[in-house]
């Protein structure tokens, strides 16, 4: 009798979970030949939240049964799925096949795009240590002249400035690579001409780029991009027609 009661309780919990419309999707993203597609992005079009796929193509995400999920990956066309008309259950195991995207180029200078994992490895190497550009073992008391030279010399200071500028350039290049992927995924709508402007607005540190997960950083960029769009609209120069508010 106790076992029957426990079974009934579990059934009620599961039914309640399903009635709320919350489901778990444990899917796998594959290409046309059935091979796994790594580094996919799964976005909920309603909540604008999502998850990254694993290297083996698998992903897990919770959503409402009526939500639409967009599955995208660099080099493939996006695909949308929804379980609104599917048989009621709490867990779904779909296989999502993506069609490879084809490109036409006038000149055949084709370079294979780097995936997110490669970019992330380079992000982890960002930064520089000022002590690498300082003479080691200098004692300010016993060697005051050498110590002051190290601190005040324009030559030594220029080395540190060059190292900082080189690191800034590396950070900017990595951000541009990420933005290219985000634009392709339709996460942000930004022209390449505006990448530098948005990077300056973003003002992101090496520490945050290295400590945040890929998905956390994606959400951060998406949120800041919305603020950036508002800021750009507010600073847009007024045109002559903007003053004709009485004619609207």
How would you explain this protein's 3D organization?
The chain has 248 residues and is of the alpha/beta class. It has two domains: 16-98, Immunoglobulin-like (Sandwich), CATH 2.60.40; 116-235, no CATH class. Helix content is 42%, strand content 16%. It has seven helices and eight strands, in the order H-E-E-E-E-E-E-E-E-H-H-H-H-H-H. The strands form two sheets. Strands 1, 4, 7 and 8 form a four-stranded mixed sheet that branches. A four-stranded antiparallel sheet has the order 3-2-5-6, with no helix packed on it. Strand 5 (68-72) and strand 6 (79-82) form a beta hairpin. Helix 2 (116-124) runs antiparallel to helix 4. The radius of gyration is 26 Å and the shape is elongated.
Features of the shown structure:
alpha/beta, Immunoglobulin-like, four-stranded mixed β-sheet, four-stranded antiparallel β-sheet, 42% helix, elongated
SSE order: HEEEEEEEEHHHHHH
Instruction: Compute the separation of the termini in Å.
Output: 73 Å
Number of strands: 8
pLDDT averaged residue by residue = 76
**Tally of individual domains:** 2
Largest sheet: 4 strands, mixed
* Cα Rg: 26 Å
Residue share in helices? 40-55%
Our count of helices gives 7
Helix and strand composition category: alpha/beta
Strand content: 15-25%
Which regions contain 5 or more consecutive residues with pLDDT less than 50?
1-19, 105-112, 135-141, 242-248
Shape, per Cα inertia axes = elongated
């Amino acid at each position: 009798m106790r076992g029957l009661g426990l079974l009934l309780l579990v059934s009620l919990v599961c039914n309640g979970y399903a009635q709320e419309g919350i489901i778990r999707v444990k899917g796998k993203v594959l290409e046309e030949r059935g091979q796994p597609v790594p580094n996919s992005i799964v976005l909920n079009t309603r909540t604008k939240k999502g998850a990254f796929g694993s290297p083996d193509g698998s992903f897990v995400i919770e959503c409402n049964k009526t939500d639409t999920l967009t599955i995208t990956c660099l080099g493939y066309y996006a695909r949308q799925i929804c379980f609104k008309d599917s048989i009621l259950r709490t867990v779904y195991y779909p296989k999502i096949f993506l069609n490879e995207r084809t490109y036409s180029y006038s000149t055949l200078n084709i370079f294979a795009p780097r995936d997110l994992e490669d970019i992330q490895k380079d992000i982890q190497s960002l930064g520089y240590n000022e002590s690498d550009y300082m003479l080691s073992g200098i004692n300010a008391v016993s060697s005051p002249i050498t110590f002051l030279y190290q601190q005040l010399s324009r030559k030594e200071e220029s080395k540190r400035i060059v190292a900082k500028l080189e690191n800034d350039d590396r950070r900017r290049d990595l951000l541009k690579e990420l933005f290219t992927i985000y634009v392709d995924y339709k996460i942000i709508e930004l022209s390449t001409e505006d990448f530098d402007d948005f990077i300056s607005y973003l003002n992101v540190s090496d520490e945050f780029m290295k400590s945040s997960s890929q998905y956390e950083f994606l959400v951060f960029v998406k949120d800041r991009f919305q603020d950036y769009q508002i800021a750009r609209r507010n600073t847009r120069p007024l045109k002559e027609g903007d003053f004709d508010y009485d004619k609207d």
